[in-house]
Design brief:
With 124 residues, the protein is mainly α. The chain is 37% helix and 0% strand. It is elongated. It has helices at residues 10-17, 34-47, 61-74, 76-85. The longest helix is centred in the N-terminal third of the chain and has 14 residues, at 34-47.
Length: 124
């Protein structure tokens, strides 16, 4: 069976598997389903679907979402991103425009009529 859409291939999984919690020797439960869980998260994030639309093959959507949130709060995703972003050969590093912030005054462009104090237009 080939790789399903939005899922990690073997090379991608090998790069991040050691960075994730749940390895033998880590405190707590062993994450035997880490790859399935990460693929489920990627399915939601890449498809733009709601968590409740997560296919059943990835598990119960509430469980996957809860674990995703716990990993967010624990900084797991940030650590993975930092390691992948530090790789000089990374050809696919992109910044989503939804995280780029601009000051509210950046919305108004230069030009147009300038207004002096008290609402009176300036003379050219």
């Amino acid at each position: 069976m080939g790789i399903k859409r939005y899922e990690l291939n073997e090379a991608q999984w090998e790069r991040i598997s050691a960075l994730l919690p749940g390895k033998s020797g880590d405190p707590g439960r062993t994450g035997s389903d880490n790859r399935l869980f990460v693929n489920g998260c990627l399915w939601v994030l890449r498809s733009g679907a709601h968590w409740c639309d997560l296919p059943e093959r990835y598990g119960k959507w509430k469980t996957v979402h809860r674990r995703f949130s716990r990993w967010c709060h624990a900084g797991v995703w940030e650590r993975v991103f930092e390691v992948l972003a530090a790789d000089r050969d990374n050809q696919y590093l992109m910044i989503d425009s939804t995280i780029v912030r601009a000051h509210q005054q950046a919305a108004s462009g230069k030009g147009g009529q300038r207004i002096r104090r008290w609402g009176v237009p300036e003379a050219d």
